[in-house]
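Record type: monomer structure entry
Structure origin: computed from sequence
Chain ID: A
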Amino acid sequence: MTKQRLLLVNSSGDVFALNTEKKYFRELGKSTDGLKLKRVSAVEFGCWGIGHDQHVYVYIYSSDVPIRVAETTFENQRWSPWGGFTHKNLLPSDRKSWSNETGDKHMTRNDFPLPSEYWEWEGDWFIDENFKGEITDRGGWQYASDFPRQYSPEPKTFSMVRRRKWLRFRRYVAREKWAKISYSDKMEDGGTFIDVSVGGFQLPGQPAGFLSIWAVTVNGKVYVRENVCEECPEGTKWRLVSTDDTSVINISVGPTGLVWAVTWDGLVLVRLGVSRDNVYGSSWSEIPYPTNETRMMQVAVGNNTVWALSRDGIIWFRKGINGDNAWFNNQSAIGSCWIEMVGSLCHISVTPNDQASVFGIGLNDRKPYFRSGVNTSDLGGKTWQLLMLREDLSKLSHADSSFQSLDDEDTSSDYQSSVSLRGTPVSVSSITNSKDSKNNTMKSIKPLKATSLSKPDLSKSKTETKNTIKVSNQSECESTKSKNHKSMGIYNIDSMELKSTITMNPSTSNISETSDEVFTMCTITPAMPRYFWVWFSAMGCYIDEPTNVRWLQTRRGKFHSMYSFSLNQNITKRISPYIRNVILERLYQRNRTEIQQFQYLENAVDKSSWLKKSSMKWYRYGYRNRWEDVTVELEHSLQDNDSGIITIHYCPRGKPVNMQISFSDITCIKRIADPSAQSVFQIHTADTTCKNQPYLLMTSSESDTDEWLSTLLTANSHLWKIKQTIDKDSICSTTLRGDVFIHQPYKTYTKPYEMLWCQQGGHFKRIETCVNGITWAVGYDHTTWVYNQGYGGGLFRATSAMSKECYQQTDTRTISTYENQKWYPVIGYTNKGFLTDCYEWSDSTGIQDKNKESIKLPSSNWHWSGDWSVDFSGQVDQEGWQYSGNFNKPFHQQPGLRDGVRRRRWIRKCKLNTVGPWNKLGSTNIKDVTIQLDTISSTISPVIIWAVGSNGNVLCRLGVTIHNHQGDNWIDIPTDLPFTSVSIGGNNRAWGIAIDGSVYYRPGVTSTNPSGQCWLQVIPTPPQGSTLHLISVGETAVWAVDTKGNLWYREQITPTYPEGTRWCYVCNKVKHVSVGHNDEVWIVSLPNFGKFKHGTGMVYKRLGITTERPMGTGWDRVIGDGWQYVSIRGYIQKYIETEES
């Protein structure tokens, strides 16, 4: 996930960014030409603004993933007996010699100018020799019988035409700077812009990074910027949107594309007809005034909220807005009624979600506020509270601009502050300035001695300009050069009138009159105009948990200041000797009464162990598997940390029976993956793993399960090495629930299923490690996390003795279900009929019943972050439907004559907050990561880490060492196609798989050149119909998995022929593969793998891998079902192979 920023604009036109993960705000970066902004509208990856010259500007945040666009054109030729293949033989009905892919547009290589000055070419045109994962004939030609027909990479008997693809890449270079948007194509009236709003990024079915940009001119006309997306951050052109001769002064766009506007007459308009096929809507609808006297001034649109301000500053909330349904229901876009809220603001802004979603600027005091208590059930919130804003001064260099904070840690109802100087109160009631000191430089005041504290004399303050105060970038006030140090006037730059002074009362001071000690006082800094806010933009600021954002936390009962007061006071609080002696005497008497007089007596009870007992249900395997009521006892020795036993008491046929499980026999304790049975947990032993029959225990509630799991892990922590840093030669894995399990070897095992697996804090989809002790993980939301050498978290509290260096982590998952319908004559498509081949609501296969109301969260630690909505991504129609002949055939976008069924996908997001020993790595999202397999030569040697970005870019992390696991920055490794997987093997051999299944090899990867030289396509590909999507490389071996779950091995890889010769099929039903040292291979299986008819997520190890048989001979089970990902790239084999299973 990208960084979340709240943008602020002050009266000087400076833009500041406040990150939700930081405590201070920082200036967004100044333009070299002195550009000042009037207002901005932000999204996650950038913002748009109106400059002081009334032009529109765009600002794209820096990122390690470049904005890189491929331009393509096709060269076409036809064959003739007398001339062979040439463009001169093209028929009049053929496409042009240079065209686009479909052939309906003439496009030569000279028809691709750069969009603007903010782009540059990466290189010259080159031929793309890749065709659906295969290498084409020499020259990149693709052959067919005619235009257009099915193309092939090799010429055939009836190949009469051919084409080849030319590529050229361009890159956007205007990051971290304000890029001016051209409007030469915009309008006839020549009007300039006065307002701009950005939204629409949640509109379905749009290109990646799509934005809906709306702007208003000084003449009241409304324009939209077309084709703004990730590959075109500037858009292409302005288009006028008719408002029926109504002049608009303000406009706002929500994340779902909902648009509201305010006219010159204070009337509010809403745009109707916004949908995935018509992103800019079709018509305007007027919203009645709240009252006859009320005229609106500004409107702010969120996800399911609309807030507005009237011209007198009154705040209004629009009830009944539902942005998710506004595409289908106009009433959801219009709402039902206006509700007047408490308070007065001059500006208001909302976030794209419904948590802490409202920010504003006070009408009279110009203070920044936020609305507390806003959530999905109460979109109006509770109260207005002040924001705690502080500026990061690390990049400020000028004294006049050095301010520590806007609102310091202490807050109150007005802008007054009181600081204490060793008991001496210093009151600042207002900031004023003398008329005579208007053009004078404010001078500093030297440190005051205690002898100079006396009643101030203002008789000379208006005539002596030497007594003015100068802004200092240090927290000290130097005394003036005047002979008497009694006059210290405080001045206001705007009023130019002396209002008040700093008053000090020496009678209340604890400072001796004869003391020569120097005390540092505060720095008085003018508030105008740096911290005088005129505009906020919160559309790029997702806030799911307001309590986790530091600057949203208020402190009541204390004063706050508009200015920065740094006071270097080293004050030691002391108590009187009498009170100290009384406290010590009482402690002595208590110790003598309660402890000393009983120290020679024996303990009444010798606590050598502790016992925990609970009633549960036990799943008893047999002829008829069933749940049986049992009593479970846990007894653990306090003297021997490895000694403990679990006893299960049950009464079959009325006879009491006891079954015991020793701690030393337990190999793993974990929850099952089924969300509907979260009170069930498994206990694995070596014997139960062989039989795939772990002990299943069900408690009375999920909280009891958490307690038992935490108790069992704590009791067994010494044996499982839980309370220590993860060893560098460990095996890391994740379950289908996202839980993290680690195997830390401490002995040589005779069998793989005897290996111990313990849980660590965190929640991830995949995790990678290496022999150098560096471990990275990727969440379900594609965020990157780095292991920080801590332990614990998860089931253990972050503050408990079982946790160290644990921090908060969030993760987001998308839950989906399919709505199915069947066609009937007269009635049409409906789900009310008789569906024999599918449920009304099901999973993607149609086999499992999955109704929206029956879907549960993965656990009680999760919470929904939105409502159910139709997924419009992919090939779907306007309502999200896909059509097919029956539910077992492929689905397509448009209905056909033989299509009798249809389905559409519904999605809902949920979020998890947990803790673990992980640090978040930047804002670059990735979907795959690989770490160098070889051991580094020294402690300062870099470790090579590659990743695949969420958009398919291949990235290389620089600066990673054993002392800096996070590294410094990403660099992009150019590719012709988006990638799905990468892996670095022995001798830094880098392999990757593109989105079309083609495999690439990249030589030249070294510690000094971690990005390698160039991509070489590996041929031949697997047999037709097999599309590879995952790859893992060992010391010499290369293994891959295709989209159908087939496992492949690359044969005959040698130092002279590092890409091998061909792919060999191994087996099917494979979900994931990991190859480690000595070319050891582990997999995670799909259901019914091989002869083992078990559930999904079983972990197996490949047996029989030798030099003569590099593919191995069989599989050995490691641990039971429920696993999703395993990484053995940091593990060195420490067990003895057994016979094949």
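Annotation 1: Residues 68-172 form one domain.
Annotation 2: Residues 747 and 1134 are 7 Å apart (CA to CA).
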